[in-house]
Amino acid sequence: MKKSKLIIDKHFIIDKVDRHIYGSFVEQLGRAVYEGIYQPDSPFANELGLREDVMKLVSELNVPIVRYPGGNFVSGFKWEDSIGPKDQRPYRVEEAWSTIESNQFGLNEFIEWCNKANTEPMMAVNLGTRGVSDAKNILEYCNFKGGTYWSDLRKKHGYENPHDIKVWCLGNEMDGDWQIGSKTAYEYGRIANETAKVMKMIDPDLQLVACGSSGRGMPTFGEWEMKVLELSYDNVDFISLHSYYGNQANDTADFLANTMDMDDYISSVIAICDAVKAKKKSKKQIKLSFDEWNVWYHTLESDEKLEKWIHAPHRLEDIYNFEDALLVGSMMITLLKHCDRIKMACLAQLVNVIAPIMTSDTGAWRQTIFYPFFYTSNYANGTVLNTLVKSPKYDSKNYTDVPYLDAVVVQNDEKDEVVLLAVNKDLEEDMEVTCDMRQFEGYDVKKHVVLYHSDLKAVNTEEKPNNVVPALISGASIDQGIFNVVLKKHSWNVVILGKV
Known about the structure:
Blueprint: E1 2-7, E2 13-16, E3 23-25, H1 52-61, E4 65-68, E5 92-94, E6 99-101, H2 107-117, E7 120-125, H3 132-143, H4 149-156, E8 167-170, H5 185-202, E9 207-210, H6 223-232, E10 238-245, H7 252-256, H8 259-280, E11 287-295, H9 322-337, E12 342-348, E13 357-360, E14 363-366, H10 370-379, E15 383-385, E16 388-390, E17 393-394, E18 402-403, E19 405-412, E20 417-424, E21 431-436, E22 443-451, E23 470-472, E24 477-479, E25 482-487, E26 491-499
Parallel strand pairs: 1-21, 3-4, 3-12, 4-7, 7-8, 8-9, 9-10, 10-11, 11-12
Antiparallel strand pairs: 1-16, 2-15, 5-6, 13-14, 15-19, 17-18, 19-20, 20-26, 21-25, 22-23, 22-26, 24-25
């Protein structure tokens, strides 16, 4: 059995967790909206057409903020089409995903859904085919109290009070040639800055997210962030990161090592932000919004064969297996390790489209990746301790010196708890983990939850929704201040310690 050691000090902290790090994402894509969160003819729908079975599962995940409406969709989005009487809303060609958009679910319906689902909206503005004027108009419609054309139109539509949306994305993936209205870094940096300037004239309390690179593999990565921030630094608050990982090569050890890339990606963007800060002699610090992250690869090939120009096709409906859940758990650990700079993040996406929740006409169920998100969001709140991991390492096809153990410790003073999140990436052996806990006098093990399956490719389906589920196990202990736990091979774990 391999042995690893964690070293923590209650005074050696990274930062307090911002709950927005547990956000998600809903785009007008596939069945994320239609048949996902909105399905008026469903027996599970309420009077607004919102699926209550889905809202129940979203509530379980405890998602504090949801990004909308895109994603690639936003660069062709004419938001005015999505408001007002539904029988007057136009059907439109939706170029980003080659579908037809009915606009039956739009801006106001999204706000209603957020209110019902007890989450906060994170709205994106179209900087692909539109620009400053339209961003000003949608902000006025959403946030202005009244007495102007757009704010009074909102009232006419039945919403007397402003929506008061405080977080806005300035476009989406504007460096990608697949993006409608894609731009150079200079073009985007200029329009992002001017848009941000006008939006903050209307509402100075906004938090604005500038587009970073669409991924670390983009040829302009680094140069893009540098130029965009040089042009917009004073008026934006965040820069975005996007990253998806897949196991197309069917190499689990290499697949699970992808958190090495994610960690380097985050560190690189932080370095660029701080370089621009130094160059500008600014006291302001740019925060990171990792507003698209997940596993995505299962449907890449099949989606190429989908019929075009239909409404709400079954697109990007990855069926996640157990090893996907292991990586998602490790990715959440990576986000927490950088919580001093990552203040928002969005699992992409929430329902049906590369999502933890799936639906059919007869129900909704939890995919494998639901569980690490659920436990992290609900239990890993408080202050992240700088967690030093002394673990055996391995080499994979694309990575060297990969720790077998991914782990982070979060201290929750409100609950008098210490929470350990850990993934044992060893595919063959269990692992013994120890940690000196003498600073936490009177603490003992309250709960140890493990997500494990002997088959790395095991999945949950509507017929077998409980094939891969977490289990409570015993054996973890604290003896004379020394914590000891055995982590099963290829397993995700949460151990909750507290005063007893």
